[in-house]
From TrEMBL:
This is Succinate dehydrogenase hydrophobic membrane anchor subunit. It comes from Micrococcoides hystricis. Its main location: membrane. The chain crosses the membrane at residues 35-58, 78-96, 117-137. It is found in: Membrane. The keyword Ubl conjugation does not apply.
Length: 155
């Protein structure tokens, strides 16, 4: 009977060199990003559940959600700030999470740079457009004859 023989394992230097990056991770930045994810997650839970409670359970519920409801809600600066905070935190939280995934799973530096560039551009576009919608929202839509459209919120 012959004994089983195994090949010599690869040296750890070959394995480690495959997964090392040309630049070290930004120590303090990564710690702050980790802390931001925890804090923003807790704040987002409060923001989102209050948003859902206000929109779905108070008043007429889902059937009451229409243009007039949003217009009436955004006529109050508190709700504009609330939705703006929710938008910004959700986008920053999600962008940071996807950035972490990109860092963890991409091997090539060039691929990592391009993916993160696309991610950051998309996040900025969504935040800018969302902010513009919240602050330039016109609740009093008028028909060509000057009469308010059905569902318009005109004080």
């Amino acid at each position: 009977m012959t004994a089983l023989s195994f090949e010599k394992p690869r040296s750890s230097s070959k394995i480690d060199s495959k997964y090392t990056r040309s630049k070290g991770s930004g120590g303090n930045f990564e710690m702050m990003a980790w802390l931001f994810m925890r804090i923003s997650g807790v704040v987002l839970i409060v923001l989102i559940f209050t948003h859902l409670f206000t929109n779905l359970l108070v008043g007429e519920g889902v059937s009451g959600l229409d243009f007039g409801f949003v217009a009436g809600k955004w006529a109050n600066p508190v709700w504009q700030f609330w939705d703006l905070t929710m938008l910004w935190l959700a986008m920053l939280h999600g962008t940071n999470g996807v950035r972490t995934i990109i860092n963890d799973y991409t091997e090539k530096d060039a691929t990592r740079r391009w993916l993160k560039l696309i991610l950051y551009i998309a996040a900025v576009v969504i935040v800018v457009l969302g902010t513009l919608v919240i602050f330039t929202f016109e609740p009093c839509m008028l028909a060509p004859n000057g009469e308010p459209l059905p569902g318009a919120f005109c004080p």
